[in-house]
User: Which sequence fits this backbone?
């Protein structure tokens, strides 16, 4: 059980570091694409593609680790 907690903590720590790294690596925003200073994309609610993918990968990792834990407990 202690190894599982250590593994989950390490995984969460690495994920947090990657999010912080991406925030600082982005750089300043560019100039608007429309000449008059309009919104940079159309339609206005610009949603990034990666918005839900990161969450789904994280949820899948948690679900997989729970399944592995359950199988290891059943084997004992």
Assistant:
């Amino acid at each position: 059980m202690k190894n599982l907690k250590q593994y989950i903590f390490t995984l969460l720590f690495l994920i947090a570091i990657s999010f912080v790294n991406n925030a600082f690596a982005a750089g300043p925003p560019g100039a608007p694409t429309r000449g008059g200073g309009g919104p940079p994309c159309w339609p206005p609610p610009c949603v990034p593609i990666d918005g839900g993918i990161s969450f789904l990968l994280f949820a899948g990792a948690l679900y997989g680790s729970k399944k592995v834990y359950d199988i290891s407990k059943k084997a004992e």
User: Anything to note?
Assistant: The chain has a mean pLDDT of 76. The two ends are 13 Å apart (CA to CA). Residues 1-11+52-76 form one domain. The chain is about 60% helix and 0% strand.
